[in-house]
Specification:
The complex is a heterodimer of chains A (about 110) and B (about 120). With about 110 residues, chain A is mostly beta strands. Chain A is built from no helices and nine strands. The termini of chain B are far apart. The radius of gyration of chain B is 14 Å and the shape is globular. Classes of the chains: A mainly beta (about 110), B mainly beta (about 120).
Chain lengths: ~110, ~120
């Protein structure tokens, strides 16, 4: 599976958009990009995933560059409850997310 | 639906003791996995199962056993606890998907294990 690189920490002001970058330069053509987050002491929570098109759901937007070597997770209006570790993961091409490899992630702190 | 449940929430063991961490899901998911998370680190896959009666090793399987006799349950057994197994353990499940599709994992609340 391809590896990902994320900044270890970021701050964001409450109410502003949080843009979390991820580099996955070795991604293969049929691997997906997944984003999960982990609020302190809780189990990880799925946010969004995509293959090559931009995706949006009720939680966030995912922007994947045309060459698929990097992506950005956007939380449009960050709240204090969005403070968490955010994991960018490149998933297996077999079709199931059961073997995702979690790295160290980005600690996002939303400031009041 | 309760989702993914784990018991116990906290456990303290002495070196050499054995125990079983319980995991259950009520979503009829095919796939279940066990991860461990050490302080300040990401999750590492211990074992996983693609269905009842089928299990396989993940990244860090040594010292752990699993079995999957039913779709709902996926217990993790520590055979002889060691201080290096002090960690937070998460169980996860996913529906499974045919090739070309993908799905997402649902995680339990975790079991915090300390081995003295």
């Amino acid at each position: 599976d391809a590896k990902t690189t994320q900044p270890p920490s970021m701050d964001c002001a409450e109410g502003r958009a949080a843009n979390l970058p991820c580099n996955h330069s070795t991604i293969s053509g049929n691997e997906y990009v997944y984003w999960y987050r982990q609020i302190h002491s809780q189990g990880p929570q799925y946010i969004i995933h995509g293959l090559k098109n931009n995706e949006t759901n009720e939680m966030a937007s995912l922007i994947i560059t045309e060459d698929r070597k990097s992506s950005t997770l956007i939380l449009p209006h960050a709240t204090l409850r969005d403070t968490a570790v955010y994991y960018c993961i490149v998933g297996p091409s077999s079709g199931s997310a059961r073997q995702l490899t979690f790295g160290s992630g980005t600690q996002l702190t939303v400031l009041p | 639906n309760a989702g993914v449940t784990q018991t116990p929430k906290f456990q303290v063991l002495k070196t050499g003791q054995s125990m079983t961490l319980q995991c259950a899901q009520d979503m009829n998911h095919e796939y279940m996995s066990w991860y461990r998370q050490d302080p300040g680190m990401g999750l590492r896959l211990i074992h996983y199962s693609v269905g009842a009666g089928i299990t396989d090793q993940g990244e860090v399987p040594n010292g752990y056993n699993v079995s999957r006799s039913t779709t709902e349950d996926f217990p993790l057994r520590l055979l002889s606890a060691a201080p290096s197994q002090t960690s937070v353990y998460f169980c996860a499940s996913s529906r499974g998907a045919p090739p070309g599709y993908t799905d997402t994992q649902y995680f339990g609340p975790g079991t915090r294990l300390t081995v003295l």
